[in-house]
Amino acid sequence: MAVTIHDIARRLGVAPSTVSRALTGKGRISPATRDRILRVARELGYQPNMNARGLATNCTGTVGVVIHERHRPVERSFYGVILEVIEAEMNQRGYHVIFSCLRDGNLPRCVRERRVDGLVFLGTDFSEELVRPVRGQVPVVLVDNHIPGVDSVVGDNVGGARMATAHLLDHGHRRVAFVVETLADPSFRARFEGYCQVLDEQREGVDERVVVEGGRRRDCDRIAMRKFLTRNPLPTAVVAANDYIAVGAVVALAKAGIKVPQEAAVVGFDDGDLATVVQPPLTTVHVPRASMGEVAANRLLKLLQDQTVPPVLTVLPTTLTVRESCGCRGPTSSR
Q: What is the DSSP letter of 329?
């Protein structure tokens, strides 16, 4: 037989109404009691009856996660871990998760037909003009993107780029390039700002000739590094806007006969799967993607309970994971 809230209440010796408040997130209940109830619900294998809940509340029991199609396959992208955590967190609270892609600038049918109670938009591909009308209909949380007045969860892009740039300067590098897909991307732009801040503070100044863009395309790393290798004198270090670009930089430098890190140091950003498979292993800024997914899911759950709460921008700290591509022996982690 299916586990009910009465079973959970009997196990804990509390009223069924207390269990209901903990499981729905509605009403006053202490955090400690909520945690106990959720833990026992998991242990007993409780699954809420979303059909009954939908009839009572006019809700679907479903939330949507939307990403731009260019990030497919998503499990290999920056957002794969984030999506997994969001799905796990929402499933734990009894919500089904629909994953959809933005194609040709058109929102998925599940959004247009309002077949979801709330939405998480993953990535910087969603404009204010697209997001605001949707937010007027259902709760919305942005991840790795920020629009004023919309709940958003981001990593500390500025702080992370500051750490990466300062680390290379501490190694004695003075001609440090910034290599990026496109500065039109808000997250990459923030990382560029951190790079610029450190160079300005150290009175090195930003040389626009070593700020190289590859364009928003699959081979952006090759395009960017082709430009990089024409610079004279050649920079002795690279701050890459993400690990994909950084790995492309390591490969391009090797093909050009330039040894990493002996002749050119490289630091990436994201600390994804690529960072440990490239040779030499990549020094990179660690972005807490699992935490981003957890915070986004919990924020959406809060909005599903009360859409009147003021929007919040959550900035999660980043750290520098030091391996070998910068010239260190690694691995270490620093703030």
A: -
User: Rounded distance, CA 125 to CA 287, Å?
Assistant: 19
Q: How far apart are CA 93 and CA 11, in angstroms?
A: 19
DSSP string across 46-79: ----HHHHHHHHT--SEEEEEEEGGG-SGGGSTT
Q: At a CB cut-off of 8 Å and minimum separation 6, what does 208 contact?
A: none
Q: Where are the alpha helices (DSSP H) in 202-278?
A: 220-228, 243-255, 274-277
**Residues 50-64: pLDDT tens digits?**
544 543 455 788 999
d(CA 19, CA 40): 10
Cα distance from N-terminal residue to C-terminal residue, the chain: 51
- Residues 6+ away with beta carbon under 8 Å from 206: 195, 196, 199, 200
Q: Packing angle between helix 31-44 and helix 16-24, nearest 10 degrees? A: 90
CATH of 57-154+289-316, one of 3.40.50.2300, 1.10.10.10, 3.30.190.30, 2.60.120.10: 3.40.50.2300
Note the pTM of the prediction, 2 decimals.
0.81
As a residue count, the chain comes to 335
CATH of 157-288+320-334, one of 3.40.50.720, 3.50.50.60, 3.40.50.2300, 1.10.10.60: 3.40.50.2300
What is the domain partition of the chain in residue ranges?
Answer: 1-19+30-40, 57-154+289-316, 157-288+320-334
pLDDT at 30: 85
Adjacent-strand bridge partners of 268:
284
113 strand-pairing partners: none
Instruction: Render pLDDT for 149-175 as a digit per residue (tens, 0 to 9).
Output: 999 999 999 999 999 999 999 999 999
Q: Shortest CA distance to 136 belongs to which of 149, 124, 123? A: 149
Q: Which residues of the chain fall short of a pLDDT of 70? A: 1, 25-27, 48-58, 330-335
Backbone angles phi, psi at 234, to 5 degrees: -75, 135
